Amino acid sequence: MMVAKAEMSAIEMEKATSDGEVVLGAGDEEDDDDVVLPGYRFHPTDEELVTFYLRRKVAKKSLRIEVIREMDIYKHDPWDLPKASTVGGE
């Protein structure tokens, strides 16, 4: 399977070939939850939220990386939500 560089962890980046492609081995896909993309800012337009993310949510299609995290906000204090909402956060 071929993967874009933005979807790779640091270990996978080291495996990348000179043309920027990498072939994932068995078990590499499990590490996707630990990926924190440096410089990544999630700032979609309203149209992008509805046409891509919401439609995928309604169709029960998952994303390779969880950029919109689902959580029960009633189980957390309001001041704890921002740190829990980051990619790779708890």
Structural commentary:
Residues 1-30 have low confidence and may be disordered. The longest helix has 13 residues, at 46-58. The chain has 90 residues and is mainly alpha-helical. Helix content is 24%, strand content 0%. It has two domains: 1-35, no CATH class; 39-90, no CATH class. It is built from three helices and no strands. This is NAC domain-containing protein. Keywords: DNA-binding, Nucleus, Transcription, Transcription regulation. Residues 36-90 form the NAC domain. It comes from Aegilops tauschii subsp. strangulata (Goatgrass).
**Shape by Cα distribution:** globular
Return the domain count. 2
The biggest beta sheet is recorded as:
none
How would you state the average pLDDT, rounded? 65
Amount of beta strand: under 5%
**Tally of contiguous helical segments:** 3
> N-to-C terminal Cα separation, in Å?
29 Å
Order of helices and strands: HHH
Domain NAC: 36-90
Protein name: NAC domain-containing protein
Keywords: DNA-binding, Nucleus, Transcription, Transcription regulation
GO molecular function: DNA binding
